[in-house]
Amino acid sequence: MAPAVVARAGFPPFSLSIRAFQCWLTVYRRIWRSSIWSSVLGPLFYLGAMGFGLGTLVDRHGTASLGGVSYLAFVAPAILASGAMNTAMGEASYPVFGSVKWNKIYIAAQASPLRPDDIFRGHLMFMTMRIAMNTALVTVYMWAFGAVRSAWVVLAWPAATLTGLAFAAPIAAWAVVVKTENNFAYLFRFGMMPLMLFSGTFFPLSQLPGWLRPLAYATPLWHGVALCRAFSLGRAGLPGTLGHVAYLTALAAAGVWAGARTYRRRLYV
Question: Which of these, 123, 77, 70, lies nearest to 244 by C-alpha position?
């Protein structure tokens, strides 16, 4: 009998992935205090500084370029989407690499009935949970600060979670085969920072040079920002919404497909 069949004998479908997810929950119960700043306080202060601090200066010069809304209402859903991206990058980079090189959680899991696919899916479930937790908090902050213009903002939460998943799955698929942690510095410096600056996060894309706008439109963060902003401002149209969701879903699915193969290549013995 094939090893994969033996490994899963007697287990319902996806039950082993849930076991891997439970492993990460056990780890998180021990280290959750270390994430209070990044998950709870950081977004609160960031939204306040950008929306009320910088926003006061921007609103003095008019809001026509922002679609007639305050800078707080403009930037808050973008912070929601970019925060999901940041959480995804943080959860899918060093923790995945460390699970092979440092704490060797993945290596220990190889001695169990878990297959590489189960290890990947279980960890991705945990990443998605972390993204959903953080984005839920930011959504509440948006409402508390008066940055919400529509009840449709409730859909901005799953939209932001999907945005994070569109980053988490491909990055995890890559991180498991990375040989040195120095590669992640390039990811954050040349990936995360430009995306935050040039994806319509802090200013409308109409202010970019014409030749640069198509590149911005192709970025996954722009799709996430546009989707969250449309829901928050009550301006979501069906064609645009479906287009953004399809783009992000396709990227997440490609990451899941790639991860199943890279994890198998890295962990299968």
Answer: 77
DSSP 246-260: HHHHHHHHHHHHHHH
pLDDT in tens, 76-115: 999 999 999 999 999 999 999 999 999 999 999 988 889 9
Angstrom distance (rounded) from CA 231 to CA 233: 6
Give CA–CA dist 170/188, Å, rounded.
Answer: 14
- Rg, C-alpha atoms of the chain: 20
Both tokens of 18, joined, read 């849930």
pLDDT of res. 4? 46
CA distance 177 to 81: 27
**What's the token pair of residue 135?**
């984005």
Q: Are 59 and 70 in contact (CB under 8 A)?
A: yes
Dist CA 80 CA 61 (whole Å): 25
Is residue 116 within 8 Å of 263, Cβ to Cβ? yes
